[in-house]
Design brief:
It is a single chain. Helix 4 packs across helix 5 (about 200-215). This protein has helices at about 45-50, 125-130, 145-150, 155-165, 200-215, 235-245, 265-270, 295-300, 315, 330-340, 360-370, 390-395, 440-455, and strands at about 1-10, 15-20, 35, 70-75, 80-85, 95, 105, 115, 175-180, 185-190, 195, 220-225, 250-255, 270-280, 280-285, 325, 350, 375-380, 400-405, 410, 430. Strands 7-12-13-3-14-15 form a six-stranded mixed β-sheet, sandwiched between helices. A hairpin with a 2-residue loop joins strand 10 and strand 11. It starts with a strand and ends in a 6-residue tail after the last helix. The protein has 13 helices and 21 strands. It folds into two domains: about 1-290, P-loop containing nucleotide triphosphate hydrolases (Rossmann fold), CATH 3.40.50.300; about 295-455, Rossmann fold, CATH 3.40.50. It is α/β, with parallel strands linked by helices. One of its GO terms (molecular function) is ATP hydrolysis activity.
């Protein structure tokens, strides 16, 4: 199986950038899943193309090479390293080292397939098609022979139907038939009878192909590009659950722009979360580290019944953001959004989820943002925050950290009935108890907000 790839001097990659991949442990769902996220044009397609270079009939195009020779190293789980480069910066691919023998099976973002077909399925033909396919522009794929193999093998048909029905609960049945031209075709069943597969919607056409690849019993490393395309959010979530379950035994790489394919339980079980970024027009690789304190926090809190919002879908959008503002709590988020709308402010950043769950968690999320390589990050603390000084020293070269003019976002009277309440029974707020800004803090808060907005709009780092 695939362990590591290193890419340098190839397309948007310059200095060597390394991606580590998850390897299934045959026990935990998600253990063999690697998620690659990031903005558009940060190198996700390039990574796929680099993985498929095991077909040495390909060429390094002039537009793909730099002044230095491209070098792509692939290491398998046995420690064997295969290197692909060229000689004298030519176009021919030169391979050195032991051949890794990893069978990469590409399921591209455009997943159309021919509903009419002839012939039998051959695994090596499938692998060759993956190696030779254009990741960006896929022609209709000859999926029929693979579906025929699944249909005529009882155990495979059961696996396929089980997965499809997990994603599309109302799906009934499918089979194969032959038309007058002696061509086989796939048809499916509804309450109205049987219909040819070419009448299926794009989403179900896409799911048929994804599930078919993942059903056959050959050993492959699966690369799925943008599985979310043409799928309703509910179907995305159910497909994500199927991928999680199957990755217990299969190595699956998913390139996605959808937060629905991120499940923190997979991360806890060993899934890799990779984010690709652009730094001065060069592709760079960032990775969440499952030994950091934020990983322990995720492990302890992702199922926390009292604070389900901390790591929900809205919070997972941090993986896909470029510019993000952290606030301490849910109330801070609600009040700030209300003020932005009322004041008709234009913002170029996103506010993180529903807050970080208290100032003590701010350090964890700042470190997570740093490991993701986010372009711009700001954090807004209450004026009496204990962790502000430490975090400002740690992150001031990277991020912008500011404090409210008061000890809370909103006025609170008798907020703490315990005589040992550390801040006293009353808390002074920048906003009144009804959520409107207090006149005496209006100018200060305007200046503070403008400073944060200017930071996100500027190309400069904090001073």
């Amino acid at each position: 199986m695939l362990k590591v790839i290193s890419i340098s001097n190839y397309k948007g990659f310059y200095k060597p950038e390394t991606i580590n991949f998850s390897i299934p442990d045959n026990e935990k769902p998600g253990s063999g899943l690697t998620l690659i996220v990031g903005p558009n044009n940060t190198g996700k397609t390039t990574v796929i193309e680099a993985l498929l270079l095991n077909n040495t009939t390909k060429k390094f195009k002039v537009t793909e090479r730099h002044n230095d020779n491209p070098v792509i190293k692939i290491e398998n789980s046995s420690g064997q390293i295969t290197e692909y480069t060229n000689i004298n910066n030519g176009s021919a691919i030169h391979m050195t080292g032991k051949e890794h023998n990893i069978k990469f099976e590409l399921i591209p973002s455009r997943r159309f397939w021919s509903h009419q077909f002839n012939g039998e399925w051959e695994f090596n033909t499938l692998i060759n098609e993956s190696s030779n396919s254009d990741v960006r522009n896929s022609n209709p794929f000859n999926l029929g022979p693979m579906l025929k193999k699944i249909l005529t093998t009882e155990v495979l048909k059961e696996k396929f139907d089980s997965s499809i029905k997990e994603i599309i609960p109302h799906f009934t049945d499918w089979t194969m038939d032959t038309n007058e031209a002696n061509q086989d075709f796939i048809k499916y069943k509804t309450i109205d009878g049987w219909h040819q597969a070419n009448l299926l919607g794009d989403g179900i056409i896409s799911l048929f192909r994804i599930v078919a690849h993942l059903t056959h019993d050959e050993k492959s490393t699966f690369i799925i590009d943008e599985p979310e395309l043409s799928l309703h959010p509910s179907a995305q979530k159910r497909l994500s659950a199927v991928l999680s379950k199957l990755s217990k035994n299969k190595q699956i790489i998913v390139c996605t722009h959808s937060p629905y394919f991120v499940d923190w339980s997979d991360f806890i079980n060993g899934a890799k979360i990779i984010r690709l970024n652009k730094n001065h027009e060069k592709c760079v690789v960032n990775e969440l580290n499952n030994t950091k304190d934020y990983s322990k926090f995720i492990s302890q809190n992702f199922n926390e019944f009292e604070k389900p919002q901390l790591l929900d879908t809205s919070a997972k959008e941090i993986l896909f953001s470029d510019k993000i503002l952290f606030l301490e709590g849910q109330e801070d988020v609600g009040i700030l959004k209300k003020w932005i709308i009322k004041e008709k402010k234009q913002v170029s950043f996103e506010i993180f989820g529903y807050g970080v769950g208290g100032e003590t968690n701010m350090t964890l999320f700042l470190e997570l943002a740093k490991d993701l390589g986010l372009e711009k990050v700001a954090a807004l603390y209450d004026s009496n925050s204990i962790s502000f000084i430490t975090n400002e020293k740690t992150y001031k070269q990277q991020f912008l950290l500011k404090k409210l003019p008061t000890e809370d976002i909103r006025e609170k009277v008798n907020h703490c009935k315990d005589i040992k309440c550390p801040y006293g029974k009353n808390r002074n707020g920048t906003f009144a108890s009804n959520g409107d800004i207090k006149p005496e803090f209006k100018e200060k808060f305007e200046i503070l907000f403008d400073e944060i907005s200017n930071y996100f709009n500027s190309s400069k780092t904090p001073q």
